[in-house]
TrEMBL record:
Domain Transposase IS4-like: 2-124
Recorded superkingdom: Bacteria
The protein's name in its UniProt record: Transposase IS4-like domain-containing protein
One Gene Ontology molecular-function label: DNA binding
InterPro entries: Transposase_11 (IPR002559)
Any single GO BP term: DNA transposition
Length: 128
C-alpha cells in the first residue's frame, strides 16, 4: 500500500495542515476535514479537487475558488489564471518535503511516526 499526503499551505507555501491518506483514495475526500475551522480568502488547487461539493462549500464560505477545471465539466467555471500561477508554491513545498529520505521512501511504517517526521521536515523547511 502507498500513502498520500494531502497538504494545505498558506500564501507563502508554508505548511498549515496535512492529512495522511491511503494511496488509492481520492484527494477530494479529505478536503472538508482539512479546511475545517480555517478562514481563508481563496482556495487554489488542481483538477483533482474539482468537485461540486468542494466548490459549494467554498462558495458558502465566501472564498474565491481557483481550481483548474476537469475537462468533462459541463459548465466550466471561470479560472483566474494569474492567481492560479501561485499554485506552484504547494508543488515547491512537496519538492522540498521529498528531499527528506524518510518521507520520500516512506520508511516510517506507523502513521504517527510518519506524521511526526512530516511535521519535523515542515519545520525545517519553514526555518530556512
Amino acid at each position: 500500500m502507498t500513502t498520500k499526503i494531502l497538504a494545505l499551505t498558506d500564501a507563502l507555501g508554508n505548511l498549515v495542515r496535512f492529512r495522511l491518506m491511503p494511496g488509492q483514495r481520492f484527494d477530494s475526500v479529505e478536503v472538508p476535514s482539512l479546511i475545517d475551522g480555517l478562514e481563508f480568502d481563496a482556495f487554489i488547487a488542481d483538477k483533482a479537487f474539482d468537485s461540486n461539493a468542494i466548490i459549494a462549500e467554498l462558495n458558502e464560505r465566501g472564498a474565491t475558488v481557483v481550481i483548474s477545471q476537469h475537462p468533462r465539466r459541463s459548465k466550466p467555471l471561470l479560472l483566474d489564471r494569474e492567481i492560479y500561477k501561485w499554485r506552484h508554491l504547494i508543488e515547491n513545498f512537496f519538492c522540498k518535503l521529498k528531499e527528506f529520505k524518510r518521507i520520500a521512501m516512506r520508511t516510517d511504517k506507523i502513521d504517527a511516526s510518519f506524521s511526526a517526521m512530516t511535521y519535523l521536515a515542515a519545520a525545517i523547511i519553514h526555518s530556512q
